[in-house]
């Protein structure tokens, strides 16, 4: 009997991407085995954290890394690190930022909601958000003006398909602008682990990544970047980071997932996923009432999704969810968007069969 039947819950087909409400992603048998092996054991957690830092550095080319509870937690902890550094008194005082630089500059179009507003994640550290430019455009002058205040603690940027459409912010230039003002720059690239090298190449002090999305670890946030900044992130475990700490099984799962990532043929994975979605779109286009096209990830993630234009997207999505097994997709006003990463061939066939029905 499968775990879903044991628990009496639905075994959903997740075609909506790495979505937290659906458990995000699937871990491999090797990662699951590593997690299971860790659960009955004790660890010196600082030793495990040191090992994780070395493993993250090796896999990404960064100087250091830290594991926290999730990427939302990583945002809050990274902002705390930018304000308090490793000073024990400052770490203990947060979220009281009296006498500390506490402004976080964020391009207005990078204010996103992933189930929680990232503005709230920043404010949880005790910081104030300063939005630069407009949702449509944040020019270098807009950014420079916002960064000019002596109360600025850091610059926060987002690399995601959730960023508002409009003129994109040059991440590398934005990082340079922050460094000219003597403040660190943080990039939230939660779903962008396959692009970690590209994001680190911007010169950002820290890149925040979700372990449980395309890396396939248990729930974990990775803070990847400069050694000094990562040390400040780890120092928050004695402060507000205490409630956002990683578990032993999460760190061990991250280690196993990083090992798999380094051993994998990434070009083959990209080709296989592209072929899967192309075949699906071709078959879906042959169904009455459906027009299908491919949608490459707007942030540059090597993942392509299928967009199905239909007459009643919300109604069709509801019928897909109501079936057995329930099928979850992304819903737009005029279309459905499906991501097929991690789905088996049988699950893809089930989606097509249900669309026929």
TrEMBL record:
One of its GO terms (molecular function) is transaminase activity. The keyword Transferase applies. It comes from Kribbella deserti. Belongs to the SelA family. Transmembrane segments: none annotated. InterPro entries: PyrdxlP-dep_Trfase, PyrdxlP-dep_Trfase_major, SelA-like. Pfam families: SelA. This is Aminotransferase class V-fold PLP-dependent enzyme. Its cofactor is pyridoxal 5'-phosphate. It comes from the Bacteria. Keywords: Aminotransferase, Pyridoxal phosphate, Transferase.
